[in-house]
Amino acid sequence: ARGNAQDQNKPTTIHLLPEFSLKDKVIVVSGGGRGVGLTQAEGLLEAGAIVHVLDRLPTPTADSDFAKVAAKAEKLGTSITYHHIDVRDQAALNEIVGGIADQEGHIDGLIAAAGIQQETPALEYTAEDADKMLGVNVTGVFMTAQAVARQMIKRKHKGSMVLIGSMSGTVANRGLICPAYNASKAAVLQLGRNLAAEWGEHGIRVNTLSPGYIVTSMTAGLFEAFPERKTAWPEANMLKRLSYPEEYRGAAVFLLSDASSFMTGADLRIDGGHCAW
Ligand code: NDP
């Protein structure tokens, strides 16, 4: 009987803390056409945000994952818009991001997730390979953040940015041959700290989010080439498994919302406790 009485008093609705809400916040997500970026964009929509994706994938078809997320956005009473762009193109970034700010009136946040990975032994690397990697993963992230900050500062509108780094920015992965990728992710961490220092006076927070191994098309390619990694990589963290894009949604909402209002220049590392052998 006691149990029943307790059940009757149980609240039927769960109230989340209001500071986690992204209601009506306008968030730009680079690399949001698929993978981690698209999954994070879905999380932002669930939290009430209006999302604009920048990606170089061909315009999404009606049966694409992006289209499914767009349909969900409509049901939630919000929207996700696709903009085709290469984030290395500074002029195009300024034009598209400026257009988003004109259309929406302001921009509140950014997730910079556009990134590439290439495995090549260090001695075989060409200068072109290295430039390409740093061009997308560092300069592309920098220029995307710059285009968004320009609009925030011009409109005197404070905001929050999340640059996607990687645990590979601080560890040398066992059995993974990607010196330029790891160097690019180390650069993202330092870029984030410096942008945070420079833009803090404008109320712009900048943090990095460093994931561990995630099951996406990026890692699928790495598993195809070296199947033994499927068992070796989970062994390298405390939870003994790989992670999924959904496990980074909540962190994105936290970092972009007022729940993290005093957090800037920091790195949030989510890697299942990746540890040295
Ligand atoms: P995906 O390759 O699945 O998605 C990345 C998206 O970014 C793709 O749509 C890609 O397009 C796009 N993109 C790449 N270069 C550019 C460019 N120059 N301009 C515009 N868009 C571009 O990768 P993930 O979702 O796995 O990774 C997302 C982020 O997370 C990356 O920064 C990655 O480094 C990071 N990360 C991933 C981990 C993992 O295990 N997967 C672990 C730690 C960090 P296209 O396909 O044409 O290249």
TrEMBL record:
Domain of life: Eukaryota
A GO molecular function held by the record: oxidoreductase activity, acting on the CH-OH group of donors, NAD or NADP as acceptor
Keywords in alphabetical order: NADP, Oxidoreductase
Membership in a protein family: Belongs to the short-chain dehydrogenases/reductases (SDR) family.
The protein's name in its UniProt record: Short chain dehydrogenase
Species: Apodospora peruviana
Residue range from the parent sequence: 67 to 343 of 343
